[in-house]
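Suppose you are handed a protein chain with no further information: no name, no annotation, nothing but its sequence. What can you learn? This example shows the usual starting point.
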Amino acid sequence: MENQKSTSMENMTDTTKLRMVQQDKLNELLAQQKNLSALQTELEKINLKIKNKEKLSEEDTEYISNLGWLAALSVTIAAIATSV
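A reasonable first move is to predict its three-dimensional structure. Written in structure tokens, the prediction is:
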């Protein structure tokens, strides 16, 4: 009987830990979604300038350049991760 209580408590503890991890992951995903939303907004502004044949500002070109570096870094990290 005592062993069943111990197992039951361990299961409840594991379930609680799992829920906490899931909540942390959800919070992380929501933060990333917010970041992606901001990124999309910025890219839409730059795209509109390009469509309207407006000159891009120095900040716009720097932003695009930084995105290029990030994209290249992401590809490199993904390649390394798949080879491990």
